[in-house]
């Protein structure tokens, strides 16, 4: 049974993000972000568990600091708009606050620690919906290319390197989100439609992965070896989702990365494309490390597959089938793009 207070705060969370996106003034956007912060804190509360409360406190302090910096940059822009130097400074401060709110490197240190103390459903909110409003604000603002390229490369490097020695699946998903933030920012430079496509595809894949984690109650890497023994179909679908998340063709996750790299090359950003592809390959190693046990299915296990599929798995199966055969639509979408 859903708690009434959680339904109330969840609706407020949705409305606050919509207020932020649709506001015509920077102060209105700032107010929407503050309502969003006050709405998600009660949703982080767990039952008889201290870790969600600790994560909520860390999240509140970090987001409050980012909001103070954001408000300072807005006031600076309003008061000193005539001065070119101060205007550029305020834009840099504004973008830094937005990057801190979304968890992009080098402002990412709070994000994996907060994810570690949350449930999978709250983690899903942090990975998807909580990224939407800061991304839209970043799209509205002027982005200096040098600073943006620094954030993109730093996010790609930090996420891929830091994920190599992790055993917590929630931290791995956090670093995966930071890696995909670098791709989303890159796509945002060239096309809003491309960014929207990337964000939607990433959200759908993340929902499928986290629903499997939540259904099987898996938190750490060593739990994967025993969790799928009685359900090999879930094992296969789990692997396919991670391969799609890594951007491996012919899965659905390959499409936005392909279009983003193509846009970079067309705009002569060869070094940026090289760096983001290189460190995405390192991130792919982390994904393969997770799915290695699921990919090694012998004949005995194949015979003993459990065919009692829960209702949740039908949605995952449908999405994976669409992802596998999506390669046939690539030329058409690429032509339209």
Describe this structure in words.
The chain is an all-alpha fold and about 325 residues long. It has a domain of about 220 residues. The protein is about 75% helix and about 0% strand. The longest helix is centred in the first third of the chain and has 30 residues. About 5% of the residues have low confidence.
Keywords:
337 residues; mainly alpha; globular; Complex_I_Subunit_2; translocase; membrane; NADH dehydrogenase (ubiquinone) activity
What are the secondary-structure elements, in order, as H or E? HHHHHHHHHHHHHHHHH
Average of per-residue pLDDT values:
83
DSSP helical segment count? 17
Structural class: mainly alpha
Sheet with most strands: none
Helix content: over 70%
Report the count of strand segments: 0
Specify Rg, calculated over alpha carbons.
20 Å
Give the N-terminus to C-terminus distance in angstroms.
44 Å
Low-confidence stretches: 303-312
Shape: globular
Note the beta-strand portion: under 5%
């Amino acid at each position: 049974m859903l708690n009434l207070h959680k339904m109330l705060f969840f609706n407020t969370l949705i409305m606050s993000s919509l207020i932020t996106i649709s506001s015509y003034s920077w102060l209105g956007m700032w107010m929407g972000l503050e309502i969003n912060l006050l709405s998600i804190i009660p949703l982080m509360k767990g039952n008889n568990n201290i870790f969600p409360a600790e994560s909520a406190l860390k999240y509140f302090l970090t987001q409050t600091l980012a909001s103070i910096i954001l408000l300072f940059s807005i006031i600076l822009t309003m008061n000193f708009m005539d001065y070119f130097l101060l205007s550029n400074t305020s834009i840099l401060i504004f973008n830094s606050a937005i990057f801190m709110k979304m968890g992009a490197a080098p402002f990412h240190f709070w994000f994996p620690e907060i994810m570690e103390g949350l449930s999978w459903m709250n983690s899903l909110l942090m990975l998807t919906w909580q990224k939407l409003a800061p991304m839209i604000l970043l799209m509205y603002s002027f982005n200096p290319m040098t600073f943006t390229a620094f954030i993109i490369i730093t996010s790609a490097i930090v996420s891929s390197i830091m994920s190599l020695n992790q055993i917590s699946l929630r931290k791995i998903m956090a670093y995966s989100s930071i890696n995909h933030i670098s791709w989303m920012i890159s796509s945002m430079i060239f096309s809003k439609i491309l960014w929207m496509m990337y964000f939607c595809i990433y959200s759908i894949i993340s929902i499928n992965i986290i629903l499997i984690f939540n259904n099987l109650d898996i938190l750490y890497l060593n739990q994967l070896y025993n969790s799928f023994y009685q359900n090999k179909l879930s094992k296969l679908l789990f692997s396919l989702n991670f391969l799609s998340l890594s951007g491996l063709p012919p899965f659905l996750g390959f499409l936005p990365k392909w279009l983003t790299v193509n846009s970079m090359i067309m705009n002569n950003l060869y070094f940026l494309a090289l760096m983001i592809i290189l460190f995405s390959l390192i991130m792919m190693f982390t994904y393969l490390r997770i799915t290695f046990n699921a990919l090694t299915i012998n004949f005995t296990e194949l015979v003993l597959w459990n065919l009692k599929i829960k209702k949740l798995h039908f949605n995952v199966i449908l999405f994976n089938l669409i992802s596998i055969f999506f390669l046939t639509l690539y030329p058409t979408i690429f032509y339209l793009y």
